């Protein structure tokens, strides 16, 4: 019997992305799956029901009731999880350990969960890397927000009223979101610097036309992530960064450490030393923020400096973000679907290291 793939409307506040697009729906059907979606699934990302129907999906209000494989963006509420088919497989940004009730519901229902935030970040996994694809959209949108809030042009302009100097933009963190922010700010004509405690990011920043800001502190860690700084390293970093910020017009913060609160990089004292009219956009607001004064989901002004802590920026670009996310999920699903049926190869590290609750390679 063909695998039934079910996708329901997202219910999280402000979430417009979808886990299935008409494109990936068509591919799943071609792979031998039966696809069921709730009516209105793609409305927030401007994918009409008719497009899903044309792609081979059945429109059903109870799309998840008999689903063997459930695809989602945000984790479903505990009550939705409790109503899923026992033993079903769920794939998405599930964060099972962030909510005790959700984790308990997954265990009690006997579900096989694949939280893609746990996916190993290897070369083979790049086509399934939802964190990277969504971070790219977030970095892009963050710079557009900064440009809107800044009381200055980003590019240099020569006008009859004189020459306007370009804005100076500093991007903190050179992961996917930071690199996209650097590229976007450069396209808008700003003078751009990138700061990251991992020295290996210098080449990436410079390849995008940015200048690498070297503060003399390195926190190169394992797996491409930064390690935590010592107290002495952090103090020196902050002293040098605080001096540099006095000449910066816009700061975009993107630094994050997986599974931990965002590192505090910009102190209140640093903000106080910035020029009135400066802008900080803190992408790390969802995990506490890189700026000490960031208020998640709010925009505040302190001593003439505007600090924005936007949440779920990827959802602002819902259509393209959904296209990337849905392709990530489709590529992962193809590790699970063989000849129209679910099959799990627990010797595959992408499955074994992503699944929750954790299993041994033998599936015990």
UniProtKB/TrEMBL annotation:
Domain Alanine dehydrogenase/pyridine nucleotide transhydrogenase NAD(H)-binding as annotated: residue spans: 147-309
Annotated keywords: NAD, NADP, Nucleotide-binding, Translocase
SUPFAM superfamilies from the UniProt entry: Formate/glycerate dehydrogenase catalytic domain-like (SSF52283), NAD(P)-binding Rossmann-fold domains (SSF51735)
GO annotations of cellular component type: plasma membrane
InterPro entries membership: Ala_DH/PNT_CS2, AlaDH/PNT_N, AlaDH/PNT_NAD(H)-bd, NAD(P)-bd_dom_sf
Gene3D superfamilies: NAD(P)-binding Rossmann-like Domain
Top-level EC class as recorded in UniProt: translocase
EC code(s) of this entry: 7.1.1.1
GO molecular function, one term: oxidoreductase activity
A biological-process GO annotation: NADPH regeneration
Domain Alanine dehydrogenase/pyridine nucleotide transhydrogenase N-terminal: 6-138
Source superkingdom: Bacteria
Keyword Translocase (UniProt): yes
PROSITE patterns: ALADH_PNT_2
SMART domains associated with the record: AlaDh_PNT_C (SM01002), AlaDh_PNT_N (SM01003)
Catalytic activity: NAD(+) + NADPH + H(+)(in) = NADH + NADP(+) + H(+)(out)
Job of this protein: The transhydrogenation between NADH and NADP is coupled to respiration and ATP hydrolysis and functions as a proton pump across the membrane.
Family: Belongs to the AlaDH/PNT family.
Protein's name in the database: proton-translocating NAD(P)(+) transhydrogenase
């Amino acid at each position: 019997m063909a695998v039934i793939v079910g996708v329901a409307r997202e219910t999280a506040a402000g979430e417009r992305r979808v886990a299935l697009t008409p494109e990936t729906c068509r591919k799943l059907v071609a792979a031998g799956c039966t696809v069921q979606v709730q009516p209105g699934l793609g409305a927030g990302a401007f994918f009409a029901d008719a497009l899903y129907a044309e792609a081979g999906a059945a429109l059903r209000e109870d799309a998840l009731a008999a689903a063997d494989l459930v695809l989602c963006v945000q984790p479903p509420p505990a009550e939705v999880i409790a109503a899923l088919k026992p033993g079903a497989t769920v794939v998405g940004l599930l964060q099972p350990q962030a909510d005790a009730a959700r984790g308990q519901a997954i265990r009690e229902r006997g579900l096989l969960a694949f939280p893609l935030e746990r996916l190993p970040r290897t070369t083979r996994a790049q086509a399934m890397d939802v964190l990277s694809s969504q971070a790219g959209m977030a970095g892009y949108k963050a710079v557009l927000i900064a440009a809107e809030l800044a009381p200055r042009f980003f590019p240099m302009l020569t006008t009859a009223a004189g020459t306007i100097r370009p804005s100076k933009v500093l991007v903190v963190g050179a992961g996917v979101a930071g690199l996209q922010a650097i590229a976007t700010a450069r396209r808008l004509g700003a003078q751009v610097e990138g700061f990251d405690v991992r020295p290996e990011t210098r080449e990436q920043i410079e390849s995008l036309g940015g200048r690498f800001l070297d503060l003399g502190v390195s926190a190169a860690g394992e797996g491409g992530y930064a390690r935590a700084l010592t107290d002495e390293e952090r103090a020196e970093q902050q002293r040098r960064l605080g001096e540099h910020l006095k000449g910066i017009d816009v700061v975009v913060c993107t630094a994050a450490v997986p599974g931990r609160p965002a590192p505090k990089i910009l102190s209140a004292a640093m903000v106080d030393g910035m020029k009135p009219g400066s802008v900080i956009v803190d992408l790390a607001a969802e995990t506490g923020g890189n700026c000490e004064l960031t208020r998640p989901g709010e925009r505040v002004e302190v001593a003439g400096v505007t600090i924005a802590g936007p949440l779920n920026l990827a959802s602002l670009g819902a259509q393209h973000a959904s296209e990337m996310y849905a392709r990530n999920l489709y590529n992962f699903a193809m590790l699970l679907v063989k000849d129209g049926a679910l099959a799990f190869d627990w010797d595959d590290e992408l499955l074994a290291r992503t699944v929750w609750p954790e299993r041994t390679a033998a599936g015990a």
